[in-house]
Amino acid sequence: MSANKLIKGSLSTIILKLLEDKEEMYGYEITQKVKEITDGEFKITEGALYPSLHKLEADGLLTTKTRKVGNRTRKYYSLTKEGTAEVTSRVSDMEAFITNLNRILNLGTA
């Protein structure tokens, strides 16, 4: 199973964490930052990214601004107050999940 299939359930947490660290980003910038951080191991497609961004926005965790950059209009995403609180919770949940997953994966090696 590829990393891209495994990342699907973690995508909203990844987006929230990136926005916590950078304050605001546009969609393509998010995909490129993930690729850069993971040395190309994780690739987020637009087909996965934008539904997650729209859901996070609908849930009140993100807000958007549009800006004209050259002859293009970009939609920038940033965390709401609720989104900022949610990042801490989701990262904590993810860390606990990873700890438990490691315990399971290392059953025969201890």
Features of this protein?
WH-like_DNA-bd_sf; three-stranded antiparallel sheet; Arc Repressor Mutant, subunit A; alpha+beta; Metal_resp_DNA-bind_regulator; 5 helices; about 110 residues; Tscrpt_reg_PadR_N
Structure write-up:
With 110 residues, the protein is of the alpha+beta class. It has helices spanning 3-7, 11-22, 27-37, 46-58, 81-105, and strands spanning 24-26, 62-69, 72-79. The chain has one domain: Winged helix-like DNA-binding domain superfamily/Winged helix DNA-binding domain (Arc Repressor Mutant, subunit A). The chain has five helices and three strands, in the order ααβααββα. It has a three-stranded antiparallel beta sheet. The longest helix has 25 residues, at 81-105. It is globular, with a radius of gyration of 16 Å. The model has no long low-confidence stretch (mean pLDDT 91).
* CATH architectural grouping: Orthogonal Bundle
Helix content: 55-70%
How far the N terminus sits from the C terminus, by CA atoms, comes to: 25 Å
Which residues form runs of ≥5 with pLDDT under 50? none
Strand order of the largest sheet: 1-3-2
Integer tally of domains: 1
Secondary-structure content class: alpha+beta
Average pLDDT for all residues: 91
Secondary structure tally: strands: 3
Order of helices and strands: HHEHHEEH
Beta-strand residue fraction:
15-25%
Radius of gyration: 16 Å
CATH homologous superfamily designation: Winged helix-like DNA-binding domain superfamily/Winged helix DNA-binding domain
Largest sheet: 3 strands, antiparallel
Helices, by number, come to 5
What is the subunit arrangement here?
Answer: single chain
Kindly identify the CATH topology: Arc Repressor Mutant, subunit A
Tell me, what is the CATH class?
Mainly Alpha
Shape: globular
Domain Transcription regulator PadR N-terminal: 15-87
Organism: Fulvitalea axinellae
Protein name: PadR family transcriptional regulator
